[in-house]
Write a structure and sequence with these properties.
The chain is mainly α. The chain is built from 8 helices and no strands. Helix content is about 60%, strand content about 0%. α4 packs antiparallel against α6 and α4 runs parallel beside α7. The chain is flat, with a radius of gyration of 39 Å.
Amino acid sequence: MFRRRTQTSAEDSPVPVEDPKPHGTPGKGRPTPKRSEAQGRRRSPVTAPANRKEAYRLARERDKALRSKQREAMLRGDERALPARDRGPVRKFARDWVDSRRLPGQYFLPVVFVIMLLSMVPFPIPVRSAVMLLYTLSLPVVMVLVLASSFYVAGRVKKEAAAKFPGEDLKGVGFYAAMRSSQMRRLRFPKPTVLPGGLPVALKNTANTAGAKK
């Protein structure tokens, strides 16, 4: 009895199957890496800051570079970087309308500054009295001219914008143009893109560059 079971067990034992792969072919010896792992290895290693002070310094440098890029974009008039009050074709039209003209409001601050400087110069008493009289009389006149110019600019810009952009929101465009007209040209923001007369600033810069090369 025991002998039959032993023989049957020996006969039923599995026969080893030969490996179909040739033994001479060497394998990679490691699993194929995933795509994310391969991409991670190709990336340049990121050096972590050594301490908190170094991390603050790097963060300040990144913020400074970002602010500088945003300011450059705003000065260029890039719509994506401008504040909400300066965006849109209506506001662009108002800026160009003001910048293409020489208006009394833009000379208000320079005139007042010059008169104040003259009033502080130690002139002889007769001259000093004449300067103070000029300052006293000219300041109200200049202010009246600036106010009259602001009302004119506000009404004219709003009227022309309504004709050129029907259906657009014109709320505040007159005040926007009037405030810009009362600023010195160099202090306007965004920077003017047209010169007095309507010539684009880019054309003038190109002409100056060509003249310098000659």
